[in-house]
UniProtKB/TrEMBL annotation:
Quaternary structure note: Homodimer.
Official protein name in the record: Homoserine O-acetyltransferase
Species: Wandonia haliotis
Gene3D superfamilies associated with the record: alpha/beta hydrolase (3.40.50.1820)
EC number(s) per entry: 2.3.1.31
Active-site residues per Swiss-Prot or TrEMBL entry: S132 (nucleophile), D286, H315
Gene name tied to this protein: metX
Amino acid sequence: MKILKVKAAIDLLNGERLRQVEVAYSTYGKLNRQKNNVIWVCHALTGNSEVHDWWAGIFGEHKSLDPSKYFIVCANVLGSCYGTTGPSHEKICENQKGVHFPLVTIDDMVGVHQLVADELGINHIEVLIGASLGGQQAVQWAVDEPDRFSNLILVAANAQHSPWGIAFNESQRMALWADESFRANIPGGGAFGLKAARSIAMLSYRSYAGYTRTQREDFTHKRDHFRASSYQQYQGDKFVKRFDAYAYWSLSKAMDAHNVGRKYTNIESALRRITARTLVLGVDTDILFPIEEQLFLAEHIADSCFEVIPSHYGHDGFLTETVRVDELIKDFLYNDFSRYRKTIFRQQRRQGVV
């Protein structure tokens, strides 16, 4: 992991300013002489720059993210807790710490990515890819700088965050705020609230079928201490060990504010700005980013194709179904990935098949 110390203060979309901004980023492979072998990965809500760790299923030799072929870059987002300036960063101004950290948007995150790309001397990006919050960043960047990208891959993402998604995030922030230590705005505050927030989030990331497959009880006489209960406790405890409550608050608000049409006439006209050849992937059981949202992207991005990934694991399917994700990405990049899938799906939707 490397650190970029931004030379000038950053003016955020909401009018506030961040000084002494640092950006953590990771690179893999080598930039070729033509500088045309760059893959830029945008990570999801609680991810970091170490894409080889959290997306191992599509990273490595002969896989989509192959460092022997590509120069792969992933930068930790503004507002996070993995090295880039955020609410608990050691160099953040005192009046901007914790709950007082300024509202960061996807636009601001993209602005920081642009700074890192410029620092690395990368004017052209062959493939821009992101899932979930990462997909929100990717689509915003492709709208803002259409000439910079040849290929765009959007996985379980959308053009604007939905009322349903915002409601899930607000419920998690309510859990954080119920924790007195979070409201006290102290380092490490909000652990109990963060545990509860993660439990709520898991319900949006997974599906009924997924929980039935993995948490079903073998004994009908059981009255307490259910597997599903233990699973929620386990996920909450594990998350508290690796993430920061104030960063979670900040990033969930950034997700809520996502709207690619904000700076343009409307969302549709913003998406029409994208010139990159685009693959849009959705997960059939995703209740947080339902496939209707990915179909909307594909319908309004000119040179795009669309595919649905079957999974029992809901939104997390982009992380669990990596064999299929890897196949689709490689097919898109190296073969004649026909756009007929988008047309067929649109016809099926009109006929009520999907």
